[in-house]
Amino acid sequence: MPQIRKIFHVEFKEPVNGKKHYYFGSKSAIFQHLTPEQIGITYKTLRNIGSIKEKPYTNALCTIWQGELIASQTNKEE
Predict the structure, then answer these.
(1) Residue-wise pLDDT tens for the chain (78 aa)?
(2) CA 21/CA 30 separation, integer angstroms
(3) pTM across the whole model
(4) Is 34 helix (H, G, I), strand (E, B) or coil?
(5) Which of 5, 6, 29, 60 has CA 20 to 30 A from 72's CA?
(6) Which residues are within 8 A (CB) of 58 and not within 5 positions of it... i.e. 6 or more apart?
(7) Cα(62)–Cα(10) distance, rounded to whole angstroms?
């Protein structure tokens, strides 16, 4: 059975540090690598919005949405 994990995709309208697409494992991880000024929203505000899975958050700088990362289950032999 595959493992399903949350993933947060930040897509910038103009490149930031040379990239338009960033992928994170949590909302808080976004703010460990990008500043509120770069994305146009604070962590507290993004957290208070709630789910961005069905309706992504969009502003003048970027769009942020939640998706799923589907990974295969590993079978480690020891």
Answers:
(1) 788 999 999 999 999 999 999 999 999 999 999 999 999 999 999 999 988 998 999 999 999 999 999 988 776 655
(2) 12
(3) 0.85
(4) coil
(5) 29
(6) 64
(7) 7
Q: How many helices (H) and strands (E) does the chain have?
A: 3, 4
- Give the integer Cα–Cα distance in Å for 69 and 11: 17
DSSP summary character for residue 61: S
Q: What are phi and psi of 4, to 5 degrees?
A: -115, 125
Q: One-letter amino acid identity for 25?
A: G
Q: What are the strands, taking DSSP E only, across the chain?
A: 3-16, 19-24, 57-58, 62-71
